[in-house]
Amino acid sequence: MDGPTPQRSTWTFLTNHARVLSGIARNPWVRIRDLAAELQLTERTVQALVADLEEAGYLTHTREGRRNKYQIIWGGKFRHPAEAGKDIAPLLHLLAGTPESGGGDGPAGRER
C-alpha cells in the first residue's frame, strides 16, 4: 500500500504515578533527580507525583542525613472503580522485580 504511514498516538499502559511508585519500590533511597532521569520526566514532575502518592497514602518518607528514604505502604488499593479493592502490591512487585513475600522494610515486606 502506498502513501504516508498513519501516525499512531503515543500512549502507555502505566501512569507516571505507577512508574514513580515502582521506581521507589526498586530503590527506597532513590534521589528524585535520578528517578526523573530514569523515567524521562522532569524533577518537578517527579516531585509532584511523589507528593500526590504521599498525600494519597501510598508512601511516606523520612529524612536520614542528607537523603530521603521512601517507604511504600504495601496495603494500598487501586483507585479506579474498575479495580477497586484490589491490592497494588502484586503490580508493584511485578514492576519492581521483587518477590511478593518476605519481611523487613524492602519491597517484599508488607508494612501497613
From TrEMBL:
Record InterPro entries: ArsR-like_HTH (IPR011991), HTH_MarR-typ (IPR000835), WH-like_DNA-bd_sf (IPR036388), WH_DNA-bd_sf (IPR036390)
Annotated SUPFAM superfamilies: Winged helix' DNA-binding domain
Record-annotated HTH marR-type domain positions: 16-65
Pfam families: MarR_2
Database matches in Gene3D superfamilies: Winged helix-like DNA-binding domain superfamily/Winged helix DNA-binding domain
Name listed for the protein in its UniProt record: MarR family transcriptional regulator
